[in-house]
Amino acid sequence: MQFGTKEVPLMADATGVNVRLYGAKGDGLTDDTQAIQKALNSISQTGGTIVIPDGVYNANITITTSNVYITGTGTLNGSINLYGTPTGNTDRFSGTGNVKIDGITIQGGKTRNGINCRWYYGVLITEVRFMNCLKAIYFEKVNKTQHCSRYTITGNQLIDCNYGLYVDYIAPDDGGSHVVGDVNFSNNMYESRTNVPGAFSNIYHIWAKGIDGLICKGNTFFFGHTGAEKSNIYIEDFNWVVIEGNHLFEAAESAVIAKEGFNLIIANNNVAWAKKYGIFLSTVVGGIVNGNNLTWKSGEDIQSTGVYIENSPYFIGNVSNNNIFFPGVYAIQIKDSSMINITGNNARSQYGKNQPLKIDSPATCASVSVTSNQFTNYPASSLNADYYSVNPVSTNYLSGNTEGVPAVPIKGVLSEEYMAFTNNGAAVDISNLTLAVFAYTRSTIVTQLTKENLSKSLPRIVVIYSYTGNLKISRQILNVKLKGSGSYVTFPADSSMTLLVYGSQIIELSRNFPV
């Protein structure tokens, strides 16, 4: 049989049921849906292999049984529906499953999805070429917990598809939270071409809401500058997600966006030229952002940030060992998030502008440890931009823990509250302050720094500054740990001391005059 200029064999080399034996033409003109469906029906009771040989088959086919293997070298100009039988419960280890699809090409024609999925488990999709699909692999809306699970999607090529992997969401009505579970999306190549007639706009490579268990590893994701692209990876309402070792390029918004989820690892990815954020995290509990390379072009002047975390008061994780080169705004920004260890990062600014690190508010960013980072080519003015801004040239961190106190920056302090004391022997209550500068206008003796209500976990910085005269501070109460052997610490005019208040402890961090 002749197809174009290529001879199409009647039988394929692979062992199995050849769709041509059931009347499929593969000429790109005939509707082959019924013929291929007949071939599938022939193995519905026992399972088996369906072979789609060279040719172009206009067909939309539906698989409803277990133990089916689709293979071949032909092109399916249509969709494959994996529509299993709904089970009476949501046990993800029972129901319809064990399907493999490999080798074929699926052409979506800019109007169809590639593979539609519901009520299936144990599916392998490998070495498939998806072209011009609305959604290459689409998990449909089903209001049950994990109606699909244990999918391995590996070694595929996705070209000019609007979405790659798409997990659609509707809230389960059975008390669960996640509609799809345990998906391994690895070693796939995804690209969008520019200036190619008929090329599709590409919006997201991965868009998933309501997924429990996702491994996204070793993929390469390109955008084609179509004007419609958004992000490489978007996940929401998730649990147990690993994004590792991917190459993520040219996102118009953020390379990775993760919202409202638990237990997230983003590690060892190469991220280049994202227009807004390299990594954007919001409302995440349990996060690790480690070993990523995030880069922009020097002089590009894009208003971008390397790693951004917001609204995560129980982040309980690390931002560590990342290389962040030429971000337009901040290397790392933390907003309304706590319990974060920022350590071992290396960042370089675009021609000496902006700040390497911004932690927006000490009142809403508690227990943020900043240690052993290397920030290069940032201006000295970044030191005083706000309370948590850091001058990378100097050693501005309290590294490690001292007497149970979390590591915090100790320089670059702006006052949020000013208080002047002129009465000798006054007691200074710092129990309710989050940040303060005490400015003394004349010689004063402060007999006590009181510690009432200091059980809060929020660390507080107090800077005491003497403009004129000599200031004396008592060090006789046990929880005031000031340097020196006398009962008072005296500092002369134009001198200062920085104290850290944490729990019931008041600990001296630094002073600019000798003991």
Automatic annotation (TrEMBL):
Q: Do you know which InterPro entries this protein is assigned to?
A: PbH1 (IPR006626), Pectin_lyas_fold (IPR012334), Pectin_lyase_fold/virulence (IPR011050), RHGA/B-epi-like_pectate_lyase (IPR024535)
Which domain of life does the protein's organism represent?
Answer: Bacteria
**A Pfam family of this chain:** Pect-lyase_RHGA_epim
* Gene3D superfamilies with a match to the protein in the record: Single-stranded right-handed beta-helix, Pectin lyase-like
The record ties this protein, via SUPFAM superfamilies, to: Pectin lyase-like
The residue ranges of the Rhamnogalacturonase A/B/Epimerase-like pectate lyase domain are: 17-80
Protein's name according to its UniProt entry:
Rhamnogalacturonase A/B/Epimerase-like pectate lyase domain-containing protein
Q: What is the lineage of its organism?
A: Bacteria, Bacillati, Bacillota, Bacilli, Bacillales
